[in-house]
């Protein structure tokens, strides 16, 4: 794994945690918060890959 890949995945993981945590704190169910976090992390990977070069 390259450093670029590690940084992209780490930032995507943090984004997923933040989105999932905010969804849960907003009153969403735990399953909805997990799905929101996973979706945010998955969507952010290609964007971060193109931004971080």
Question: Short summary of the structure?
Answer:
This protein is mainly alpha-helical and about 55 residues long. About 85% of the residues lie in helices and about 0% in strands. It is built from 2 helices and no strands.
Query: How large, in whole angstroms, is the Cα Rg?
Result: 12 Å
End-to-end Cα distance, whole Å, is: 15 Å
What is the succession of H and E elements?
HH
**Strand element count:** 0
Low-confidence segments, given as residue ranges, are: none
Structural class: mainly alpha
Shape: elongated
Helix count?
Answer: 2
**Proportion in helices:** over 70%
Report the major sheet: none
Output mean pLDDT: 95
As a percent range, the share of strand residues is under 5%
Word description of this protein:
The chain has helices at 3-25, 30-51. It has 53 residues and is an all-alpha fold. Helix 1 (3-25) packs antiparallel against helix 2 (30-51). The longest helix is centred in the first third of the chain and has 23 residues, at 3-25. The mean pLDDT is 95.
What are the key terms here?
single chain, 53 residues
Break the fold down into its secondary structure elements and pairings.
Elements: H1 3-25, H2 30-51
């Amino acid at each position: 794994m390259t450093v670029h890949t590690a940084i992209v995945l780490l930032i995507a993981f943090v984004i997923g945690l933040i989105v999932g945590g905010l969804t849960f704190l907003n009153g969403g169910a735990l399953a909805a918060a997990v799905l929101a976090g996973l979706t945010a992390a998955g969507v952010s990977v290609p964007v971060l890959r193109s931004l971080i070069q």
